[in-house]
Recover the amino acids of this structure.
């Protein structure tokens, strides 16, 4: 009977450890996602072009000053 109780306690402890491990893994995944989002934002800011047309502006990832604006941040 005592052995059964000890075994049950051990199983409960293992279950708690597994839940804690899963929570830590989830936290790590969230941190990784946040890091990837920040990296994407940084790349977006770094790769943005600053060449402008007279009447319209070239936007990110297109450094050719054609008057057909593409996307996102315009440079004035």
């Amino acid at each position: 009977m005592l052995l059964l109780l000890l075994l049950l306690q051990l199983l409960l402890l293992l279950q708690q450890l597994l839940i804690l491990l899963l929570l830590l893994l989830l936290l790590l995944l969230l941190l990784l996602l946040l890091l990837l989002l920040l990296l994407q934002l940084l790349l977006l800011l770094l790769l943005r072009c600053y060449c402008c047309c007279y009447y319209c502006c070239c936007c990110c990832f297109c450094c050719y000053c054609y008057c057909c604006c593409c996307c996102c941040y315009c440079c004035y």
About this structure: Confidence is low (pLDDT under 50) at residues 50-76.
